Sequence to fold (342 residues):
Amino acid sequence: MPITAAEIAAKLQGEISGDGSVQLTGFAPANAAKAGDLTFAENEQYFTAAEQSAASAILVGDGFTSARKTLIRVKNARVAFAKVLPLFFPEPAFAPGIHPTAVVAASAQVDATAHVGPHCVVGAGVKIGPRAVLRGGNHVGDNSTLGEDTQLFPNVTVYPGSQIGRRVRIHAGSVIGSDGFGYVFDAGAHRKVPQIGGVLIGDDVEIGANVTIDRGALGPTVIGKGTKIDNLVQIAHNVVIGEHCILCAQVGISGSTKIGNYTTLAGQVGLAGHLKIGSQVTIAGQSGVMHSIPDGEKWLGSPAQPDKRMKRQLLAAQQLPELLKRVAALEKELGKKVPKKS
Fold:
């Protein structure tokens, strides 16, 4: 459905420069935009490309002017970009009801506005809230809860006793509440420690594809509200993750580690068990963390260290070949025998 540039500006609390009545029917990058499209530019390079494109309007921050294009100026172009996309690409609508192929226990409570798709299994005592969506092939174990507007994408598995908040999105193939990795060595064999805790996921969490979140051994594994988890992340038993954290792809967190609020773990970060990672911490990609980290610090490396210390070590390591040459030359000059390479 077409929408005018002026209407978009009003929704974004922005301002129009140029023809506000121009009709916009889509959103596209500058190199693929056509007439009727809105495009986006947050720096001079992108703006130059957008001005030369066929797009009918450009979404920009302050400081840009154009004699050729209608501009929608906003305070923060990237935030506005996230807000405007759903106007052109709305989420698919799912009709309330339960698909004939779904198996729903008699004791389950499924809100009348919820959607349970094909080949889903909903266990005994499960509670599914208003407008929740199970897209298909989902298994929700006994006594689990899904809050309002929560979505399970295809083939998500929720083990018994998991508590999932409101507006949570869990992408395809993820497993919530599988057994934690707990064993004791007994009489020459590894004896399984029963995992009887659960998983507690707060509101507005998004979990990527093929993520595994283990249930706690006793108490719950906890994911705080607003936290975003990328694909292929492993979260072990009794981990507690605070609010509004970012976990990038292939992060692995060992058991009983606790993470504060607004902390970022970049791709392939690994955390040892029983650590305490503070709030507003940033850990660089591929770091291996063996020690607890106070609030607000930046760490990197493997084993990880505070970033300034590790950067000094990396710079020093780069100078080692030249330093060895200089030492060898000095030893030769002083008449000392240079040791042969082994």
Notes: The longest helix spans residues 307-333. The chain has four helices and 40 strands. Helices lie at 5-11, 44-52, 77-88, 307-333.
